[in-house]
Write a structure and sequence with these properties.
Structural class: mainly alpha
Number of helices: 8
Order of helices and strands: HHHHHHHH
Mean pLDDT: 83
Helix content: 55-70%
Largest sheet: none
Distance between the termini: 114 Å
Shape: elongated
């Protein structure tokens, strides 16, 4: 009986091992995902800064100053803010929208803030993935910088419109 048990066990092991083992070859796509300051400097977009008059009022808007710091870090190639959890971005943008000073609280500026948040979350989403090409990372960085520039432009337009003295007949 022992011999039959051993033979059956060997037979079972032998039949289990006879299947052709298919080894899937995983090809690694070479991706140079590192984005450097030189790459960001080469991006072509129109960058708007804040007008001097707007800057004085915006300095009291603490969350906007924090956003300026994040954007200046992004321009230097420091993507660490965007590689953390998305709740940091969502929290910053929520606080930004909730603390808009009355002097710049318009629907168009709120829309630019929402657009900026969307672009920041998109950039973060692509930075998390390892198989995204560097060009796509750079395109998303550019979208964030353009959205931030458009926010500054909209703030400048608000101040320009407010400074115009239009006489009503």
């Amino acid at each position: 009986m022992k011999k039959i048990g051993i033979i059956l066990m060997c037979l079972c092991l032998w039949t289990c091992d006879t299947e052709d083992k298919k080894v899937k070859k995983i090809e690694e796509v070479p991706v140079s995902g590192l984005v450097f300051q030189d790459d960001i400097i080469k991006l072509k977009y129109v960058e708007y800064g804040l007008d001097a008059k707007a800057k004085t009022d915006i300095l009291i808007w603490e969350k906007f100053v924090e956003l300026e710091i994040v954007m200046s870090q992004l321009k230097t190639g420091d993507l660490s803010y965007f590689q953390d959890e998305s709740k940091d971005i969502v929290l910053l943008m929520k606080d930004l929208i909730n603390s808009i000073p009355d002097v710049v609280n318009t629907p168009s500026i709120q829309a630019r803030l929402v657009s900026l948040e969307t672009k920041m979350l998109k950039l973060q989403g692509t930075l998390i993935l390892k198989n995204i090409p560097k060009e796509e990372h750079l395109e998303n960085v550019k979208e964030v910088l353009v959205a931030y520039s458009n926010l500054n432009l909209q703030i400048n337009k608000k101040y320009e419109k407010d400074s115009q003295k239009i006489e009503k007949p």
